[in-house]
Amino acid sequence: xxxxxxxxxxxxxxxxxxxxxxxxxxxxxxxxxxxxxxxxxxxxxxxxxxxxxxxxxxxxxxxxxxxxxxxxxxxxxxxxxxxxxxxxxxxxxxxxxxxxxxxxxxxxxxxxxxxxxxxxxxxxxxxxxxxxxxxxxxxxxxxxxxxxxxxxxxxxxxxxxxxxxxxxxxxxxxxxxxxxxxxxxxxxxxxxxxxxxxxxxxxxx
Length: 205
Known about the structure:
This protein has 205 residues and is an alpha/beta fold. Helix content is 28%, strand content 22%. It has a 6-stranded mixed sheet, sandwiched between helices.
């Protein structure tokens, strides 16, 4: 398996303004833009990492959080190796929406994909509106891993994404995800050619 590069599709969902794009840019480019514009539809980022001596290309599918894009966003869950539900720890309303995003992640993504919940913007600690324990309990209730990060400082981003990539790799190694599908670059290849999770083929958007 180490001889052929695998591609993992990571999709980030959550309300607009929670920092999904900033997280991707910090992890992939080590850049933080103070006045980040809202994502319209979908944005892509990539980074190649080493997992247990294997070269892994991670594709980040950064989705728009606005309600008018919700139906489009749902189509992107297909063939995701990992789904990240993101909220802003300083914004209670963004946390209140997490339940709906979790339902989408559970119902629309492959059953063996890795599920993660992220509380972003921990640099705004003095403005925190969502206690760690409350968020962690919600994640645990739905069998999601839970991390808190800061896209501004990069705190915990490496840990969050690399640990998730390792978990996906372990799942692939255990044949719970069809590893053949992950050798394709799903940005460059049609989604209807991607096979993941028990050999099921999912249609394109």
